[in-house]
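We now fix the convention by which a protein and its fold are recorded. The integers have meaning only within a learned vocabulary of local backbone shapes. The record below shows the convention in full.
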Amino acid sequence: MTYAILFIGAVLFLGQMFSFLFEKTRLPDVLPLMVLGMIIGPGLQIVTPDMFGSAGEIFTTLALIVVLFESGIDFKVSSLRGAVGQGLLLTTVCFVLVGVVVSFAVHWTLGLPLMASFIIGSIVANNSAAIIVPMLAKLKIADNTKTILFLEANLTGVYSIVVALALLGVLVKGEAVSAGLVGLQIVKSFGIGILFALAAGLFWMGVLNRIRRMENAVSLTFAFVLLVYGASELLGGDGAIATLTFGIVAGNIRLFSRLWLKKFEFKGVALNAEERVFFDELEFIFKTLFFVYMGICMRIGEWQFVAAGALLAAVKLLVRWPVVDLCTSKKISRTDASVLLAMCPNGLVSAVLAAMVAQQLPGDGGAVQDVIYSVIFFSVIFSNLMSFRIEKGGLKWLADGAFTRHEAAAVPSPDPALQPAPAPDGAQEQNPS
């Protein structure tokens, strides 16, 4: 027990150091955390997944709840209004194409069942906002390009969660798969979860001011999030979707109150700075521990899954190329288009969904988890290296060759004040030597 506590403290301390290095070097903290887990897990075999027992499943579920709630809070409904054009088009088309192509690639290369392959495709099509957003602050690209990337990172998370959980629900029930059944499953489980979460969210945000008068009130919102997840599951709804919906209500309550609840004189309050900091810290703790746990669970000896992850990360980039080229404005520069292509790493949402699939599908779930974990590892490496090279002026050949529809980077005209004055008529240049 003493060594376990010491280990958790060391991991959290290292996680903070890796996060600091991320701010300075743009090396995502995901990579060193995963490598640490791989070293102490499958490498030295100091820790094995079996040692966690049922605690591993509880930890994964709690991580999922925290990630979904934070994703909901960060998702701003108002952003859809200003980006219904190319941002929404790029996000939707790219998610569908990447998901479909990756699914069939997995089915053909690894021989996994088609439904399990589609779960992998829907998870791989997700982009990590937690990795992309901090990197955007350091990239010198147009504001419009940053808006598109921010929207895509948040929307693909929602798409991935909805589609992956719907397909997982059908597989767990063991029923015959059909388009009608999938649609019915989505309407039933998601409908109950969404309606329950909307009611719970409006209730909680309406009484939050009174709750804040109580002692230790900050943690009560987290406790209520856990209640929403559990109660939704008991009612036959999907707890994950209910948690995501509750987060969206909490993050957009002022907009909802102003636009749709005004006639009811509903006065909901948003989360304050102290509550947001609490959930940010909570997400940091779960993220740090989860990525180390993820490295421990990786089966490095299963080379076919590791190779498949590298292949699928590359396939994702290849599929994004024509979508970025055709679904974005010609006015976006070729350099910015290259950044749009490169910024597609998978992250925490993908990892938690993969762990959830592994828990609920004893057969093919382990293979799904191994493939997704490998995709996360390689996609982070590819995106980080490409964006770094683009920012330093490299990969210009890629931008010029892949995005001919887009405008070339403007070449700054020379400053007239720095140019030599023209020689008088008839004057000849003198050789200073």
Confidence is low (pLDDT under 50) at residues 410-433. The two ends are 82 Å apart (CA to CA). Residues 179-211 form the longest helix (33 residues).
